[in-house]
């Protein structure tokens, strides 16, 4: 629906490509003004693509692992728009070791710390900075993009990645318990295998193996994740908090 998010201001981290761009595109289509926050050079072009579709969007260069940048970013968005309704913590990294996962015994402390900084500390900092703005409005929607790796034994991803995404689920539940009385919900969407640049290092053999394990017979698309995020960001989901929606074609079921 075109106007479900009319008047809402949304932040999508890692929104320049892949799942994040799919989410930005969907929230903008539903009527939100979308701030695409990303580190890559293509960020401005991503916002431009949405503007060409007649949507309301802007680009912001942000490295979610940099605490100082996050404070300036959130204050800047609030100054420009007067509100922040939706925060989608989507930016994430999944370093690979020649196309396969890093075993724990092969993982350097630096590699571990980098993944935790981007995938877990970044979302924590963004939540911490956005919550006071959402409390003042009496309204907020936080959606954290976790992973199937946080739901069951990770097959294709490394221990640091699984730890970061499982931590993000724990953070989401804790925060949901703290902010529900302020009209703020906090939920997760856990993608299965979604066709994006993050999968570009996977061999054809691994991709075929993964697809063969999906009951629906194929990898998902960014739009499949975006649909779940748009629902959680809408008024329809006003009484849903502290939960995770699995979007994985049936690859993992609880
Ligand atoms: N693709 C999948 O199958 C899959 C499965 C489960 C979970 N996920 C999760 O979905 C999210 C999006 O994944 P994707 O497949 O679209 O990945 P992607 O690599 O295609 O896109 C990730 C985006 O995040 C941005 N980013 C990375 N580090 C950043 C930083 N420090 N600050 C700001 N932006 C940063 C990148 O520039 C990129 O635009 C990630 O959190 C990922 O862990 C993806």
UniProtKB/TrEMBL annotation:
UniProt xrefs under InterPro entries: NAD(P)-bd_dom_sf (IPR036291), SDR_fam (IPR002347)
A GO biological process held by the record: fatty acid elongation
Pfam families for the chain: adh_short_C2 (PF13561)
Molecular function GO labels: oxidoreductase activity, acting on the CH-OH group of donors, NAD or NADP as acceptor
NCBIfam families tied to this protein: PRK07231.1, PRK12826.1-2
Family: Belongs to the short-chain dehydrogenases/reductases (SDR) family.
Name used for this protein in its record: SDR family oxidoreductase
Classification lineage: Bacteria, Pseudomonadati, Pseudomonadota, Betaproteobacteria, Burkholderiales
């Amino acid at each position: 629906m075109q106007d479900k998010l009319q008047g809402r201001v949304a932040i999508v981290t890692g929104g320049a490509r892949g799942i994040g761009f799919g989410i930005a595109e969907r929230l903008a289509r539903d009527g939100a003004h979308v701030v695409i926050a990303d580190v890559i050079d293509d960020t401005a072009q991503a916002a431009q693509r949405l503007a060409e579709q007649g949507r309301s969007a802007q680009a912001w260069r942000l490295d979610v692992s940099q605490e100082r940048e996050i404070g300036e970013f959130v204050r800047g968005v609030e100054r420009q728009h007067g509100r922040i309704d939706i925060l989608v913590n989507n930016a994430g990294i999944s370093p690979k070791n020649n196309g396969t996962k890093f075993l724990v015994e092969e993982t350097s402390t630096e590699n571990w710390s980098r993944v935790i900084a981007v995938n877990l500390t970044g979302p924590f900092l963004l939540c911490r900075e956005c919550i006071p703005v959402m409390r003042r409005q009496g309204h907020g929607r936080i959606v954290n993009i976790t992973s199937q790796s946080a739901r069951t034994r990770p097959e294709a991803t490394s221990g640091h990645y699984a730890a970061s995404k499982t931590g993000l689920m724990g953070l989401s539940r804790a925060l949901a318990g703290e902010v529900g009385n302020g009209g703020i919900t906090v939920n997760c969407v856990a993608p299965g295998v979604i066709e994006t640049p993050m999968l570009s290092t996977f061999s054809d053999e691994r991709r075929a193996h993964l697809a063969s394990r999906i009951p629906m017979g194929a990898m998902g698309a960014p739009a499949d994740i975006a649909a779940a995020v748009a629902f959680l960001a809408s008024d329809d989901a006003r009484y849903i908090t502290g939960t995770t929606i699995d979007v994985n074609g049936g690859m993992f079921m609880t």
